[in-house]
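To: structure desk
From: M.T.
Subject: fold request, one chain
Message: Could you run this one when you get a chance? Sequence is below, nothing fancy, just the single chain.
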Amino acid sequence: MIEMRAAPTLLVVGLGCQKGCPATTLRALLDQVLQAHRIDSQQVLALASIDLKQAEPGLLELAAQLELPLTCFSSTQLAPYALRLSHRSQIAFERTGCYGVAESAALALAEQLHPGTAKLLIPRQKYAQATLALAACQ
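Reply: Done. Structure tokens follow.
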């Protein structure tokens, strides 16, 4: 008899951060979330954020450390995800034009990588100067 194992869920990490947030802070948040949810880091396919952060040194350094691509979306591209967010921040909207960077970016990239409806696996986690969310490619 052949045992069928489900393929591991492929994940996208959405990140939001304050200007100047160091890679060490972002990495600590990512490691903490993966460990708390017993997720293998090998399941993470890519990182996502908003285009306002595309040159943010901490995000670029984290992507390089993890050897993962970082994809950034415009607020216009992230806006359609507003109703699917676990938390809608008026402050985030005023600063970026979308109600939640981490969750929106994670969902947007997951759906770009694997057409269909992505699922928010881990909603927005806030830590020091950053937020993180994980979306699953269904």
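Reply (cont.): The radius of gyration is 14 Å. Let me know if you need anything else for the meeting.
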